[in-house]
């Protein structure tokens, strides 16, 4: 079936033939990809979410920062940081850090993997749409931790008294944040409501 | 097919590999995890136990082990041994320092030390105590008994004994001077078996060994000497600025010098310098120390004091 589509990049109206599986249509003028819906939304979301799930473990298990303070050498994992904040009586910040760095990433990853794997189910479409909605709501809060860290490192690196080096955990953590973000962005919520034939075409 | 679409340009159809490339991301994540685990499991330094008489000043999960100033490990825990005689300090060495876990390696604690004779480890006042080591070359082991204090650097030297009545301000590592130049140091001291003397075990470094003759005279050059004379008034003398603080031993060799002293020689340590000894000025050829060796062996020793 022949369709007439306008290129999203340069606006050229052109005819697009049926696109076979594993292929994409490219604009006759600007050579950018022409798509009606996000391309391979399902597998991209799944791939990003699985990668995030894998890196979730090192990001929590390994020290986020290695600090040399007055000759002492301390390594802090996210969880140790939360615990010491709690013991210092900083219940609000401790709770905030726990939510943004341990709880919500886990929620997002599990939620995304769940809805991408259960797309073919018939029932509970509304519930699954709600899961996606919640994921979109908590999304921006995930970035908070990275900002906190950036500020903290910037402040402490100033003096010679203490030096802070990023630990293994921080790279994994940043990767988890980026990957969950990409996963949410590449998920097309229309997939939830597509008919099986449409879904086969668009996923 | 309408006529309209015939006039329109046709979009190109190309194969897309993105769907396959996207799965490289989880694969890379797995790879990263494997890399971390491999680093931890294979490139894992040994865990060692060091027994200290007292671990006062060391902090659990904090105090480092340093070698030549570089961190090579960290203390993990410490607990009292069942017989309550030692503190077992467990520490993890870095992978690069794994070769230090050998028999013969000596560990000791570096702590601020301000006593007459030496001011050492001042940095540790701020940074906290740490453990350092002198590598050994025996078979691998994971258990060590810490030294009570820093060992005296082993150098080729002539070792001898000084007899004295009272130790005075002398200590381990008190310097021995010849014409104001440090040529050796005190290694150790103890009471003689009949408890009438103090036996001071000392050494003269190999390159200065020819200065020490069987008829050399030793005297205590420590502190400040006050001489009161009717005509000269008060006279204050000291061997050197260092001896004022740290005490010291000096010696002189007469012009008609005898045989070179060998290991185990015994000398009397006099309380004061004899005026006659000051005039002794023999020409004694020193060992020809090769220039390269001098730089390697003698200069760092001076610096490390
Ligand atoms: Zn275009």
- Small molecules in complex: zinc ion
Report the span from N to C terminus of chain B. 96 Å
In this structure, how is the largest beta sheet of chain B organized?
Answer: 7 strands, mixed
CATH architecture heading of the largest domain in chain A: Up-down Bundle
Strand % of chain A is: 5-15%
What structural category arises from helix and sheet content of chain B? Answer: alpha/beta
Keywords:
heterodimer; A: alpha+beta; Butyryl-CoA Dehydrogenase, subunit A, domain 3; 3-stranded antiparallel beta sheet; two-stranded antiparallel ribbon; 7 helices; B: 305 residues; 7-stranded mixed beta sheet; elongated; disordered C terminus; binds zinc ion
How would you describe what is shown here?
The complex is a heterodimer of chains A (203) and B (305). By secondary structure, chain A is an alpha+beta fold. Chain A has two domains: 1-36; 38-202, Butyryl-CoA Dehydrogenase, subunit A, domain 3 (Up-down Bundle), CATH 1.20.140. Chain A has seven helices and seven strands; from the N terminus they run ββββαββααααβαα. A three-stranded antiparallel sheet of chain A has the order 6-5-7. In chain A, β3 (23-26) and β4 (33-34) form a beta hairpin. The longest helix of chain A is centred in the middle third of the chain and has 27 residues, at 91-117. Chain A is elongated, with a radius of gyration of 22 Å. With 305 residues, chain B is of the alpha/beta class. Chain B has seven helices and 19 strands. Chain B has helices at 3-7, 18-21, 24-41, 123-127, 241-246, 275-279, 291-304; strands spanning 12-15, 47-52, 64-67, 70-80, 87-93, 106-110, 113-115, 118-120, 130-134, 143-145, 157-164, 175-178, 181-191, 198-205, 217-220, 225-229, 233-237, 249-252, 265-270. Mean pLDDT of chain B is 78; it is low at 290-305. β3 (23-26) of chain A pairs antiparallel with β1 of chain B, so a sheet runs across the interface. Zinc ion is lined by residues 7, 9-10, 12, 27, 29-30, 32 of chain A.
